[in-house]
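Hi Prof. W.,

I finally got the Hexosyltransferase prediction working! I wasn't sure whether to trim anything, so I left the full sequence exactly as given:
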Amino acid sequence: MFSAQNGSRQRLEMFGDVKERNPLHKKPLCHGKKSSFRFWFQFLVLVCLLLLCLFYTVCNNTLSRGKGVSVQSTCSWLPVQTPRGNAPPYRVHPKHRLALNDMNENTEPHPAQQQPVQYHEAYPHNYRFVMENAEVCKVNSPFLVLMVPVAPSNVAARDAIRATWGKDQVVQGKKLLTLFVLGLDKTHDVEKLQQENQQHNDLIQSNFLDTYLNLTIKTMVIMDWLATRCPAAAYAMKVDSDMFLNIDNLVIMLKKPGIPQNNYLTGMLKGNVPVIRSKNSKWYVPEEMYPEPLYPTYPLGMGYVFSNDLPAKLVEVSKSVKPFNIEDAYIGMCIKKLGLSLTSPPDYSQFRDYNTRYDRCEFSKVITYILDSSEQLIHYWTDYKKPGPHCKESG
Ligand SMILES: *[C@@H]1O[C@H](CO)[C@@H](O)[C@H](O)[C@H]1NC(C)=O
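And this is what came out:
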């Protein structure tokens, strides 16, 4: 249709710089023919471009919806963005991609989110006492209060403690008080608990749901009770119900001259403990709750001892420490936030965790040991309390 020269000229004409250089342009003879030809040519090019645009749009839409198999093959030569895997079907700047992926991940349910943990905004004040035994502390202020978190239904554990290390109200000449701290349990018998409390006057119950993930609430309820119902006590201990507690050794330790009366918190201290991010773990903590990879140094929750000025401070500071479900690590966070530090016990070997076997001599030297059952506690305690020397060497 065109000569090679014409073709290149037409193309140049589209950029509009040929006119001056082309002498033919000025000839009036062919002017009419030329301009109508140019009009049709430009019209044709425009229509072609429009069709191409339309085709491209149709292809793109169909592909991103993942349908239109026939169109897909037809369009395969086009530089169309095909959605791949979980990537969003639109362009994402690499800087924002991470955030989007995070958002996708966050929509997956995990154990803690399926049952969302109630941020207690610290806060024991969000709950109220169902049973509080407010008078037990006021009559005769104890030297040491043992606060034992326990499930409402676990009467066996309470009875074992009442028969063993919670039995004596005076130890080494010091007044002691042992109390059990409960939340609400859907299945528990309210009347039975009230009867149990009438008999022993040792139950403290708050109206939060008593679950493993709510242990931080329980710990802060313990602190609240100590601060508001028992401020005159000198020391307190949070001690789990599955523990062997050598109460004599504990009181002897607290009576030592060097033991501080304020800002004192001791037990089995753990530093550089990594936060568990595995969702299947019992101790899983999501990053939204606690972003740091390590916990601050904290006292293991099985049994820690503190001067009784601390509970009020802990309750106060907990308003500004975001709660998470690891109660002892949370106490570590609160202590850190208060600008305080933990104190090593005078004898580190007295705070023990798991025991492999009962040894009368060894159990007479420690303060804590973790046990397997309430029966074991009664069994070991009975033996430990038998008259006669504990250790062969000294006897
Ligand atoms: C914690 O206790 C609150 C108050 O009773 C309750 O609403 C929430 O479901 C409990 N959380 C868990 C994880 O049990």
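Residues 71-119 form one domain. Does that look reasonable to you?

Thanks,
D.
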